[in-house]
Amino acid sequence: MAIRAFLSFVQEDLNLVNLFRGQAKNERLDLEFADYSIKEPFDSRNVDYIARGITEQIKYSTITICLYGPSTYTSKWIDWELNKTLEMGKPIMGVYLYNDGRIKYHPAPLKDWPKLPWDIKNIVQTMEQLAIRYRKGRT
């Protein structure tokens, strides 16, 4: 069964996010990504439209993965996406994109959730464990 992951990230990390997507596909994992990246600033006139689109993507996802770099913790949208996922009763997890000490803070909603280095097999294993717990909690 495919795990549908909503990827939460800031636009400045798009190149690394695309590398992450490619690596997951190359590993031939049973993994499906839903991606609704933010193209407009948070204070845009289209906030409601953007929020509805993101909510739909999260609704059909199993888990939200926050792929984060040094400045991700400052994004209001990242916090909103993670909190929306939790509000829907779904699990979240973080993957830090750099392992060289430049990331000092993680997004606040990740406080009590797994935060992993970029190791695709470990990430998928953690996703599967969280998805199983989520499904058991819903039945």
Automatic annotation (TrEMBL):
Q: Which organism is it from?
A: Candidatus Gottesmanbacteria bacterium GW2011_GWC2_39_8
The chain's coiled-coil residues are none
What is the protein name stated in its UniProt record? Thoeris protein ThsB TIR-like domain-containing protein
Against SUPFAM superfamilies, the record matches this protein to: Hypothetical protein MTH538 (SSF52206)
Which Pfam families does the protein's record reference? ThsB_TIR (PF08937)
The residues covered by the Thoeris protein ThsB TIR-like domain are 6-99
**Superkingdom of origin organism:** Bacteria
Which InterPro entries did the record assign?
Answer: ThsB__TIR-like_domain (IPR015032), ThsB_TIR-like_sf (IPR036490)
